[in-house]
Design a protein that fits this description.
Elements: H1 4-18, H2 21-35, H3 41-67, E1 70-71, E2 90-92, E3 104-117, E4 127-128, E5 141-149, E6 163-170, H4 176-181, E7 183-188, E8 199-201, H5 203-209, E9 216-218, E10 224-226, H6 231-243, E11 253-255, H7 261-276, H8 310-314, E12 318-334, E13 337-346, E14 355-362, H9 365-368, E15 376-381, E16 388-390, H10 392-399, E17 405-407, E18 413-414, H11 420-432, E19 441-443, H12 453-462
Parallel strand pairs: 2-12, 9-11, 17-19
Antiparallel strand pairs: 1-16, 3-5, 3-7, 4-12, 5-6, 7-8, 9-10, 12-13, 12-15, 13-14, 15-16, 17-18
Helix pairs in contact: 1-3, 2-3, 6-7, 10-11, 11-12
Length: 470
């Protein structure tokens, strides 16, 4: 397990090698100063050497903070923390093409998806594209087969005007989960009878329709209504917003009391209609998710039960969970994912009140494909409780990006896949016993797991799925 100190020492040595001229100039200037004191060339050389030398620790600290995704006291949010509820998630995704004024917003279900191209050339370094949030190099090209619902019945029940379309689109990595969920918002341009209609996905709206970004509405009387995964009502609200030139969400909320009277009245009329006939919440993912599964085709961190450092374990290091409250795109990328400005809500292991932290993190692309169903991450807590490190390998397993498996001593496979609370309990058990499992498979047939076999069985029984119980 990498330590922050080890990463810093490595970066310090690299910076010293790159800036080795600094100490040399400083030594030359100091030596010449002794022979010829004054403000001539020796002082200039010494000053240049000092400036270059000073960049060595500064560069090492900066590089370590970027490479080592640690959260410390300095990252805690001030003024009471983030003003959103525990179940809120706000996603600020790059804007999509807006289409012509005659284009219509429609729902499209994803029937199939595949990665056609993603080949960045940045290796593991950070690459910044000034002013460009979706450079082609770091925006995967996805082949999609869509069913577009050309009907006022926006719940996706189908109509005589429905049609299918196949094509390739650049998908911002922050919006990949909309494909896995299977619900998109598309702009459909008008066309002559019999002609092919141009279809353009609207990715930020798709993230909202899919349920990745949460949504609620406050009406004119101050009453709040949850709208997450209510695609019919959301799509009609999007149409009203587009006709009005855009309606700004405060976090995940639209407050009708802040809108102009005409737009607020249209929203209120729509709310009255759905109050009489409430819309059922759509599933987290539409049927046929296996045909849209992109996590295995995109880069990221391979899931595992986790590595346990002996020193960390002996000194009392623990695991905790955190939840993303916000993600905001930046113009910096790594090969395996975008660098995002994030806000997390962290639950300390000692049971004290949770706190919010703002941290710029590289978020793996395979994790972003399942963001519609989980926003949780696993954190490694330092023994002194002062720093938290995102453990993407454990996070990937907990999120279901990689399938977890437990094999009993008799060769039977215990049911753990798709059960995050059970997987979490097993991770904590292994960490408390100082056992590293660098794979998504916990094979109890191995001799080193004999001491925990009984404990693993008890944990599985305690978290038994009631649907499988007699």
């Amino acid at each position: 397990m990498r330590s922050r100190a080890g990463v810093f020492i490595g970066n310090l040595l690299f910076a010293a090698l790159c800036c080795c001229t600094g100490p040399i100039f400083l030594a030359i200037g100091y030596s010449a100063w002794d022979e010829d004191p004054g403000w001539g060339w020796p002082a200039a050389v010494a000053a240049a050497g000092a400036a270059i030398t000073l960049t060595i620790p500064v560069s090492a600290i900066s590089s370590t903070r970027k490479e080592f995704p640690g959260i410390t006291r300095r990252d805690r949010m001030k003024a009471g923390g983030f003003p959103y509820r525990d179940d809120t998630f706000v996603l600020f995704a790059p804007r999509s093409q807006q289409g012509s004024p005659q284009a219509r917003l429609m729902r499209a279900d994803v029937l199939g998806a595949s990665l056609d191209r993603y080949n960045p050339d940045g290796e593991s370094t950070f690459t910044t594209h000034v002013g460009n949030y979706t450079p082609d190099e770091f925006t995967p090209l996805i082949g999609l087969r869509l069913r577009v619902y050309d009907t006022e019945d926006t719940g996706g029940t189908g109509g005589t005007g429905d049609f299918e379309v196949t094509g390739e689109w650049r998908v911002p990595s922050m919006c990949l989960s909309a494909i896995t969920a299977g619900r998109l918002v598309v702009l459909v341009e008008p066309a002559a009878p019999g002609a092919r209609r141009a279809v353009t996905p609207d990715w930020p709206r798709s993230a909202l329709l899919s349920g990745t970004r949460t949504a609620r509405l406050i009406d004119l009387e101050g009453r709040a209504t949850e709208l997450t995964r209510r695609p019919g009502r959301q799509l009609q609200q999007m149409r009203i917003s587009r006709e009005a030139g855009g309606v700004v969400m405060t976090g995940d909320t639209i407050d009708l009391r802040t809108l102009d009277p005409y737009t607020a009245a249209r929203y209120a009329a729509l709310a009255d209609r759905y109050r009489d006939r409430p819309e059922d919440q759509a599933p987290v993912s539409e049927p046929g998710e296996e045909a849209r599964w992109l996590a295995d085709q995109l880069p990221g961190e391979k899931g595992e039960f986790g590595t346990v450092g002996r020193r960390w374990s002996r000194r009392g290091g623990v695991l905790v969970r955190a939840r993303f409250l916000e993600m905001r795109g930046t113009t910096t990328f790594q090969d395996h994912g975008p660098v995002l400005d994030t806000v997390l809500r962290i639950q300390p292991a000692d049971g004290t009140a949770p706190f919010d932290a703002a941290r710029r993190l590289t978020v793996p692309m395979d994790y972003l494909t399942v963001l519609h169903r989980t926003k949780e991450v696993v954190l490694l807590v330092s023994p002194n409780g002062r720093s938290y490190v995102v453990d993407w390998a454990r996070t990937s397993l907990l999120a279901g990006v990689t399938t977890a498996r437990v094999i009993a001593p008799d060769g039977r496979e215990l049911p753990v896949a798709g059960r995050p609370e059970l997987i979490w309990a097993l991770m904590n058990l292994l960490a408390s016993q100082g056992l590293s499992v660098t794979k998504p498979v916990l094979d109890l047939r191995k001799s080193r797991f004999r001491t925990v076999e009984g404990m693993v069985r008890r944990v599985v029984q305690e978290h038994a799925d009631p649907r499988t119980c007699a």
